[in-house]
Amino acid sequence: MSVKLSRREREIMDILFELGEVSAREILDQMSEPPGYSAIRAMLAKLVQKGSVQFRQDRNRYLYSPTVARAQARESALKHLVKTFFDNSPALAANALLGMDGDTLDPGELARLRAMVNQIDEQQEQ
């Protein structure tokens, strides 16, 4: 999912990832400072057009769900973020993240980060 999403579209996607298959009304009820119902329907139609969301009709309402897994969407968004704000450098992005929360990492998270870096080192040596 390498489509660009507006802030509102990302909010809708977050709701869909959290709740699964829902109606436009249910999405509206979950949004902070929601726009009108017709605006939600228009955004959902745009997300369907972009291929990010699918729908099915259930009697007199449409139910919407994401077309990709949350992990896939997360990876795509992260790649876009790294490219846009960190000169396509994962190291710069990681440094910024560690600088933000470096003092609050618990020992388990720190160990997991070390293991990931060690695994990358081993793969590059092969």
Structure description:
With 126 residues, the chain is mainly alpha-helical. The chain folds into two domains: 7-66, Winged helix-like DNA-binding domain superfamily/Winged helix DNA-binding domain (Arc Repressor Mutant, subunit A, Orthogonal Bundle), CATH 1.10.10; 86-125. It is 64% helix and 11% strand. It has six helices and three strands, in the order αβααββααα. It has helices spanning 7-19, 24-30, 37-50, 70-85, 90-101, 107-125; strands at 22-23, 53-58, 61-66. It has a three-stranded antiparallel sheet with strand order 1-3-2. The protein is elongated and about 60 Å long.
Radius of gyration: 19 Å
Helix content: 55-70%
The CATH topology of the largest domain turns out to be: Arc Repressor Mutant, subunit A
The outline comes out as: elongated
Which strand-content bin applies to the residues?
A: 5-15%
CATH class of the largest domain: Mainly Alpha
Please tell me the total number of domains: 2
Order of helices and strands: HEHHEEHHH
**Within the largest sheet, what's the order of strands?**
1-3-2
- For the record, what is the CATH homologous superfamily label of the largest domain? Winged helix-like DNA-binding domain superfamily/Winged helix DNA-binding domain
Terminal residue distance: 31 Å
Individual helix count: 6
Mean pLDDT value: 88
Unreliable stretches: none
- CATH architecture field of the largest domain: Orthogonal Bundle
What's the number of extended β-strand segments?
3
The biggest beta sheet, please? 3 strands, antiparallel
Structural category is mainly alpha
